[in-house]
Sequence to fold (94 residues):
Amino acid sequence: MEIFVEKVIREFGTRDVFEIAERIGVKIVYESWFPVTIGEFDNRNKTICVNLNAGVKLEKIIAHELGHFFAQEFNLNKAEEEKFAREFVEVLID
Ligand SMILES: [Zn+2]
Fold:
């Protein structure tokens, strides 16, 4: 994951999640819902929906959903993709 994230940072010249989202053409919208999930990534509409009720830093939510975006280039099952998104946040932000 470290190598993948380094590649992303090099490609976009930043580790800022808002800038990365803009560069890949992913729109960010903000909503509030019962906090079962922290956010959603809608691939068809290239939109990240952030749950303002999640109690998690917005940057982390967006990084997680960007992880789902970047996971698409690999052939992962749901559990693997979730793990990928979690690790993406850890390496990019923490
Ligand atoms: Zn996820």
Q: What stands out?
A: The helical segments are 2-12, 17-23, 58-71, 78-92. The mean pLDDT is 96. The chain has one domain: 2-92.
